[in-house]
Amino acid sequence: MKIGMLTSGGDCQGLNSALRGVAKTLYHELGSDVTLYGIRDGYRGLIEADYHVMQPEDFSDILTLGGTILGTSRQPFKMMQKKADENEETKLEKMLETCKKARFDCLVILGGNGTHKTANLLAQHGIHVVTLPKTIDNDLWGTDTTFGFQSAVNIATTVIDSIHSTAFSHGRVFIVETMGHKAGWLTLYAGIASGADVIVIPEIPYSAQAIAAAIEKRGRSGKRFSILAVAEGAISKEEAKMSKKEFKEARRNMPYPSISYRMADELKALTGEEIRVTIPGHYQRGGAPCPADRLLTTRLGVAAANLIREGKFGNMVAVKGNKIVPVPLSEVAGKLKTVPADSDIVQAARDLGLSMGD
Ligand code: F6P
Fold first, then answer.
1. Contacts of 238 (CB under 8 A, 6+ apart)
2. How many beta carbons lie within 10 A of that of residue 146, not counting itself?
3. What one-character DSSP code corresponds to residue 79?
4. Is there an atom of ligand 1 within 6 Å of 136 CB?
5. What is the Å distance from ligand 1's center to 27 Cα?
6. Strand 315-320, strand 129-133: pairing
7. Which of 1, 80, 164, 207 has the greatest CB tally within 10 Å of its CB?
8. Whole-angstrom Cα distance, residue 276 to residue 254?
9. Is the Cβ atom of 24 under 6 angstroms away from ligand 1?
């Protein structure tokens, strides 16, 4: 069997341990009957036929390694079937040609939302595909969790933990802005785990007045400081009422580098408090996978290899409860898993007395 592997989209912790899980299982079960090919920089390598044969030793010593040994890139789904001119092949056509020329029996694709749309497109064009769910955002449909998420929660939690002491010393209000794109999972989990006082996620539009009231209430009860965990995708109640076009325009004209700086100004005007902003940014995606992600990626890698051996293509390996199960790519592609505003965990935060910024 000839199997091409690629990692696509924004990286995260656990990509290498997932590749290792797939490779070790295939080598163990199929021995010399399998050849693995590393496709460089995600779909870019598939489009440009940039791939190479890999050896078992390439997968040694990478369990704890951050990033991806294959490299990655962002290749927007909407560009896959566009032609620059009449005679030019589309990226999709080029990828299909690479698969044919290389005689890949299957592609193993590790990625998040955009990656899964393209993986599904390839499957619809007859390519055998098995995928693994990666992203620190945890916003992939069809799986309870994605790998990378837990490692990012650990980092974001550590950042907010550290902010506590300096916030206390100075009696300040701090905003810690966490990643997560349009989903609030990372902010919600890290916010609760680190004891943040206010958690603002995209799924629950915020009111600056409500946040100011929460800060002032803490002040009246004798608390010297407040810590706000704010998702990079947070939106205000006013913005939630806008059309997509109006929102895009408003954000284009926003005179701040990110939502947290705007919120800091809004809250300063309302409370008179000194407010500091901390943004850990890509730090949340870097470094070694945490043990939970090493375990998860190993289980997902083994499951992906077993799907290939059984010929069950067109699936993503997913977490459902305590099990790893196959989920058809057609069910995953194009859907976003956001935090339900009435979920148990949001309710738990509210019951605890945390403000959700609304
Ligand atoms: O999807 C992962 C993610 O880290 C998001 O949380 C964030 O919005 C985005 O990628 C950042 O993208 P880039 O690495 O291209 O700046």
1. none
2. 29
3. G
4. yes
5. 33
6. parallel
7. 80
8. 19
9. no
* 275-278 and 173-178 strand pairing: parallel
pLDDT at 270 over 90: yes
- In tens, the pLDDT along 150-165 reads 999 999 999 999 999 9
* Assigned token pair, 89: 């092949």
Which amino acid residue places its CA nearest to atom 10 of ligand 1?
A: 10
| Span 212-233, pLDDT tens digits | 999 999 999 999 999 999 999 9
Please tell me the distance between residue 181's alpha carbon and the centre of ligand 1 in angstroms: 7
Contact yes or no for 197/214 (Cβ under 8 A) = yes
User: Could you identify the atom of ligand 1 that is nearest to the CA of residue 9?
Assistant: 1
**Ligand 1 atom closest to residue 282's alpha carbon, by position in its atom list:** 4
| Exposed e or buried b per residue across 241-275, where buried means at least 16 C-beta atoms within 10 angstroms of its C-beta | eeeeeeeeeeeeeeeeebbbbbbbebbeeebebeb
**What's residue 37's pLDDT?**
98
User: pTM here?
Assistant: 0.97
The residue annotated as part of the active site, out of 11, 33, 50, 137, is 137
Closest residue by Cα to residue 188 from 213, 147, 160: 160
DSSP three-state, residue 313: coil
Is residue 285 lining ligand 1, measured as CB closer than 6 Å? Answer: yes
Relative to beta strand 51-54, strand 129-133 is: unpaired
Q: Which amino acid is at 31?
A: G
Residue 44: count of CB within 10 angstroms of its CB: 18
pLDDT band at 49 (very low <50, low <70, confident <90, very high): very high
137 counts as catalytic: yes
- Tell whether the model's pLDDT for residue 295 goes beyond 90: yes
3-class secondary structure, 69: coil
Helices (H), 103-224: 113-124, 149-170, 185-193, 208-220
Provide the residue type at 96 as one letter: L
| Averaged pLDDT score across all residues of the chain | 97
Distance 221 CA to ligand 1 centre (A): 38
At 80, is the pLDDT very low, low, confident or very high (cuts 50, 70, 90)?
A: very high
Specify the pLDDT at position 84: 78
User: What's the maximum distance between 2 C-alpha atoms anywhere in the chain?
Assistant: 71
325 bridge partner residues: 318
Is the CB of 135 inside a 6 Å radius of any atom of ligand 1?
yes
